[in-house]
Design a protein that fits this description.
- The chain is an all-alpha fold and 202 residues long.
- It is 75% helix and 0% strand.
- The protein folds into two domains: 13-110, no CATH class; 149-202, no CATH class.
- It contains seven helices and no strands.
- Helix 1 runs antiparallel to helix 2 (37-48) and helix 3 packs across helix 4 (71-112).
- The longest helix has 42 residues, at 71-112.
């Protein structure tokens, strides 16, 4: 007799257990974020902590990205507020800033003495290439989350392609890309949600 096949593994949604858990989680996240912060955030919050599904992460990261300020700081404020209100937002922000700020100040002092050395410049260029690879790899890893996007995969692909062309090739300022392509995507998503609501009501 063959063993029964296991069903699909469902995503078990987690959440921070306390304000202390929230603080130290974002502190650890921030201390790992040397350039490739998107990769670290996705791994910690989705794969390890399971505070967000991939779909939720894509949506929340998109909101954090269009708000003023660093993306990951915006995301920490959003998650802290979601679970613990204003206290959580402030604690998450403190986790993102306190120890990383001390580390950055220490590194700045140490790097000042060797910044002009050829070895230091080469190390920075090498790390830049690695960071670019990490960001691309994370983007590819998150592509499956778009299958459930209300806009549909073809529209998401077109918007992503146009965004790359506008920023990387034509070098249109980010604010205009957000207003143009971001606004168009928002209108299309609103239209699709309206269609879904009408279909459900019928």
């Amino acid at each position: 007799m063959s063993a029964p096949s296991a069903g699909p593994v469902s995503f078990v949604h987690g959440q921070p257990q306390s304000l202390g858990d929230l603080f130290w989680s974002f502190t650890w996240l921030a201390l790992q974020g040397f350039g490739g912060v998107l990769t670290v955030v996705q791994r910690e919050l989705v794969d390890r902590k399971k505070w967000l599904t991939r779909e939720e992460f894509v949506e929340d990261w998109a909101v954090a990205q269009i708000l003023p300020g660093p993306n990951v700081v915006n995301l920490s404020l959003m998650l802290g507020d979601r679970y613990f209100g204003l206290r959580g937002a402030l604690v998450a922000l403190a986790g993102m800033l306190v120890f990383p700020l001390l580390a950055v100040l220490l590194l700045a002092v140490l790097f000042a003495g060797v910044s002009s050395a050829a070895a230091a410049q080469g190390a920075l260029r090498g790390m830049g290439a690695v960071v670019a690879g990490l960001i691309v790899a994370t983007g590819l890893k998150l592509i499956p989350a778009l299958k459930k996007n209300v806009m549909g995969v073809p529209v998401c692909a077109v918007l992503a392609g146009l965004t790359f062309i506008a920023i990387a090739l034509i070098r249109i300022p980010l604010v205009w890309v957000l207003l143009g392509l971001g606004g168009s995507g928002s209108v299309w998503a609103w239209h699709q949600l309206g269609r879904i609501r009408v279909a459900v009501e019928k």
